[in-house]
Structures
1.
Amino acid sequence: MASILSNPIEYLKGVGPLRAELLQKELGIHTFQDLLEHFPYRHVDRTKINLIREIDASTEFIQVVGRIVSVDLVGDKRSRRLVAGLRDSSGVLELVWFQGIHGVQKLVQVGGEFLVYGRVSFFQGSPQLTHPEIEVLHGQHVTPPDFLEPVYPTTEKLKVRGLGGRQLGKLTQTLFNMLKEKDLPENLPASALTWPDPETGRPMGFLSRYEAYRQAHFPTQPMLFRQAVDRLKFEELFMAQLRLGLIKSKRHRSSHGVVFGQVGEFFNRFYTHYLPFELTGAQKRVLKEIRRDTGSGRQMNRLLQGDVGSGKTMVALLSMLLALDNGFQACLMAPTEILARQHYEGIAALLKDMPVEVRLLTGSSRSKSRKEVLGMASEGRLHILIGTHAVLEEAVQFQRLGLAIVDEQHRFGVAQRARLWNKAAVPPHVLVMTATPIPRTLAMTAYGDLDYSVMDELPPGRQPISTVHRYEDRRPQVMDFIRHEIGKGRQVYVIFPLIEESEKVDYENLMKGYENVKAWFPEPKYWISMVHGRQSNEERDTNMQRFLKGDTQIMVATTVIEVGVNVPNATVMVIESAEKFGLSQLHQLRGRVGRGTEKSFCILLTSPRLGKEARERMSILTETNNGFKIAEKDLEIRGPGDIEGTRQSGLLNFKLANIVQDKYWLELARDRVMELLDKDPDLAMEENRALKAFLQSQHGKTAWSKIS
Ligand code: ADP
Ligand code: MG
């Protein structure tokens, strides 16, 4: 049965084809339902009749009832206006019109009684209403509306067509007059409709769905408005997490995964003879989780959150060896060529005395070696393939791919993740590793379909990185400090911003910066590497290699080296124009040092003129090294829309909810969803029938449904 809410907006009284087209174009409103979900951004109180005497400097809007005592046309032809005096029992108020004077004159006549509403402005000290809304009262008793009047977001084009912020409310009103409770049936199960008051713990109840929509648009009391919005936010968050939860629970129960049943020769031999250090507790715990997942017969889809430097690469390597032990191939993907190459070299070196075939595949692999690698992969002779996005190409086929690892997730989209699944008849296990932590609330919503591991422990012997913030005029002291560290045999990074919109200027700054560093550190005593995106691969590579080997002491670079690069002897990170970077990015850059046992430093250089927010970012970084804390702050400051990798996904475009401000509802929804799926993973129970029907009716209408 089609719901009235799926009717095209054109058929709502007062819309018609022309306005319908505009509503679609301007606000994406196609159906009655869309109009219902176009929420007001504020309300004005028209439930009261005010007295003119009550107006003071703080009055914004006023609604009065009075009689017209004067009407005058003033000004010359070029700036004519109509001024009327309205008197109530307490005083007189001026009403002013600049346009449509002719029509107003007909309506507004001395002696007439009117209900008048408008925004108060002051002209030479006395209050007036310009272009007020007026309604003739033919002596009848005035009953103001019993709800707060909604004002809706709109556009200039719609305003011209008579669909301003308040006029849209008239349409919504028309719609509501047609709606019955059954048109907006309850979709939440009873178990989700009550919740404990966060302060008193007393059980509270949500408004019904119908009532919530009504009160969100036309609240009869401010309190009910808040309750309505809370209910709708909760519902939004609940449905979003339920969708992801269903994907996850379905996969847990029915997805086929290849089974890594045993730990064998590859893993054990490496672990006993070639593992260069003792694993941290966190690394061991995550490996156990991976082993449990991959041995279960279901496909693993796990997100590994670890702070910078927590040793995710070793977890990746050991997991891949586990795959080999069970007769499968493995691949590891990195977001940049530099990083892929570094992983390749590091892993190949660690495995050099083991009978493991490891190869690298990137966009710039020469066709001969590319052909060889592809052949080895498809014939099953290749054990481990390391590479960039190039690995995802159709041409890359494995004989028995069992595990795919994605390093530094936030540059890989959801869709790319899905492409990995198609690389084998039975989809391989997937491990996704983040570069820097993502806040828990964000991970819950954006990656709620993945299982979740955390590495919150750094390898032993690390000294915390000291971070300082310096203004650019202190550069000489900073350079002295660098010289001192180089004197001790250490290496240094100097990072310049590269922001797409100002690319040209940024390159000029990078070059100037390079010359400047060179002036402080002249050859042949010092050698400098430079790495940036405009270089050829060979050039970048040579520079990188020289720094890795210690042939150069200083690395001047853009953020191309942001993620993953590992040079344990580097102890100083200087970030130029640090105010241009986001928190997570700064933390990630800082993570390039502090990778060995020597004390490391990060120096944030900024202009002395800093905005409040930039100042806050600098102070957060100087206060903490904890990536999890920084991620939370980043989310607070920037909001969810801005966090890299989530923007494109469309997963966080809630209509009402905000995962930063509505953390309480998010977590409550999460808990309720988990309880529910524990009890009824298929939504087969009677009490969840309405919920199931609702989800099915929404299929295809949200970004969420696209990922299932
Ligand atoms: P990230 O998690 O940022 O990717 P890496 O995997 O690059 O971190 O590891 C950072 C550094 O720590 C590397 O030099 C690595 O060899 C080292 N490392 C990793 N695990 C341990 C450990 N358990 N003990 C000592 N050093 C470790
Ligand atoms: Mg890494």
2.
Amino acid sequence: MNTRNTIILAAGKGTRMKSKLYKVLHQVCGKAMVDHVLTQVEKTQMDQIVTVVGYGADDVKATLGDRTAYALQAKQMGTGHAVLQAEPLLKDEAGTTLIVSGDTPLFTAQTFEDLFAYHEAKHAAATVLTSVAPDPTGYGRIVRNNIGIVEKIVEQKDASSEEQEIHEINTGVYVFDNQKLFAALHQTSNDNAQGEYYLTDVIEILKQQGDIVAAYQMADFDESMGVNDRVALANATKIMRNRINRQHMRDGVTLIDPDTTYIDAGVKIGSDTIIEGGVVLKGSTVIGEDCYIGAHSEIRNSTLADHVTVTSSLLEDSTMASGSDIGPNSHLRPESHIGPKVHLGNFVEVKKATIGEGTKVGHLTYVGNAKLGKHINIGCGVIFVNYDGQHKHETVVGDDAFIGSNSNLIAPLNVADHSFVAAGSTITDDLKQYDMAIARQRQTNKPNYYQKLPYRGED
Ligand code: UD1
Ligand code: CA
């Protein structure tokens, strides 16, 4: 039976990234480069997927999980040597093998399909995917003979000055007849500028033994971009961001200024939501329909229902129910769960708290480690005092309670439903239903005392 297989090369350290993080784990729009590659491979029908790991093997495995099999390349001796590590898993398969690098995050499944189709139509033993680079520096060059037939691939460091003029580059993606691939790999040598076993040499080897070698030139160079350093990482991110933004717009989301809107690959947004410029949406964030996300908001791993308004605020690992709003300049820290129609106004910080339907927290308030019921009114400048220096304690506020401005609620504390805290109170004892608590110094007025003070007003 003819099988289709993929080998993803992801064992390199990525020296040119100058990073503690292994190259293929660097993120493009919130997702590791090698994960982008695997995601596109998964959209193409495959019998087996093998990822070659080496540097950072455990981290790469933790990122990709059991979506792929793994082969270990203990020592990085080149791309050809890397592919050979998959030999024990694949060598007996009759069929076709796609090879792609973990550092080319922009390829689409459609391009892989087109490559397979071209390869099959040409009855080739190998087909290399090429593109025309405006600046080919660093890439392997495609050397064709005078009638346009591919002869070989020359690496940048091995290329003559004449070959360096070639703009058609090796994208690092190929399909091979599986058995011919492994047979030819055993014939490669490391007699080259980098002292490595190059996968690219297989092209010339197959060619010389009389096999058909084809080259399929894709139209869009951007899609084939390889990321070897941080400059290319930023370029790839820009292209991916543009792609993501266009998809959201096509799906019915209004982006006021897509050039300054930063949406991670995993984010979902409902139709008729409006997103202003400077907005950053990260991780697993989900936003419903008809929401408004104001300029310079950042939302990380949070879920917003429909009709939610966020104005210049930071939301982390939290949820907001339908019709709720926040901001400007407020902050949901992790594990904040905001109920329907809740109003969180200016300079409000919430952490590890649930807030019930219709409750209002208008201004300058900290709510931490708390459970708030429905239709509560929290005045200006209220502090949920949750930390005694050693432990965090919880405050519970019942439905329809009123917390006057500038109050401190010292946890652990239970403020019953339908109870009232007078403004300026520091509350240490629980309130029962219908209680009113007032905990502040009584005011003293001293008649004519103004005239005894040195202060004479503003002249
Ligand atoms: C490679 C190609 C080059 C092509 C370019 C496209 C070779 C020799 N060169 O060059 O023709 O234009 O990709 O982007 O193949 N890797 C391993 N083990 C190793 C070495 C590399 O797994 O021993 C992996 C890397 O992690 C990386 C991929 O193979 O994902 C490509 O290696 P890299 O060093 O980036 O090759 P380039 O110099 O970019
Ligand atoms: Ca590369």
